[in-house]
Design a protein that fits this description.
Elements lengths: L15 E2 L2 H13 L4 E5 L4 E5 L1 E5 L4 E5 L4 H9 L3 E7 L2 E7 L3 E5 L2 E7 L4 E4 L7 E2 L7 E7 L5 E12 L2 E5 L1
Antiparallel strand pairs: 1-10, 2-3, 2-6, 4-5, 5-9, 6-7, 7-10, 8-9, 11-13, 12-13, 13-14
Length: about 170
């Protein structure tokens, strides 16, 4: 049940991890932190949020939480393109699976996919980012020009700041 991932975007190839031990460690860290994964089915025709329930190195599998909808779970099992995406330490992590099978995790419905041969850990920033305080958020106000020529002020919170730019909360 081993899959080969092909880079969907050649620009991401420098961020692709191939080390099995690093991939397993990263997946286990995502699981231990209960990080939510977005699962896109059939190139985004369907999607769901899920969690990693188990990473089984011996059987080369990842167990994820199934959806409450049996119909969606069936579409996942029938799909040949499952795209997973997570945000781990503010770094985008993506991988692809070509198959899933239905299972039970204790008494809950679950899905099993193969551990990927590679995944993308996408961090394109060259500069360190400082997270801004949550209790006293920093505000940023922009002046935007509308299509009719009038202006409007847009206020938003800053989530982080670095030499290369800022992260805004919408």
């Amino acid at each position: 049940m081993r899959i080969k991932n092909n880079p969907e975007n050649a620009d991401e190839s420098q961020y692709r991890m191939h080390s099995r031990s690093e991939i397993v460690a990263l997946l286990k860290n995502i699981m231990q932190r209960n990080q939510t994964l977005t699962l896109l089915i059939n190139h985004g025709a369907d999607s769901m949020m899920t969690l990693i329930l188990d990473v089984d190195e011996d059987n080369n599998t990842i167990t994820i939480d199934a959806d409450k909808s049996n119909a969606l779970n069936e579409r996942i099992v029938q799909s040949h393109h499952l795209h997973f995406e997570a945000l781990y330490n503010n770094i985008r992590v993506t991988y692809v699976a070509n198959q899933a099978s239905a299972a039970l995790n204790q008494v809950h419905a679950a899905l099993i996919i193969p551990i990927p041969d590679s995944l993308v850990r996408l961090q394109r920033r060259d500069a360190f980012r400082v997270v801004t305080p949550i209790t006293k958020p920093l505000r940023c106000v922009f002046k935007a020009v509308k299509q009719d020529g009038t202006t409007a002020q847009i206020a938003t919170n800053l989530s982080n700041i670095s030499v290369g730019g800022v992260g805004l909360v919408d």
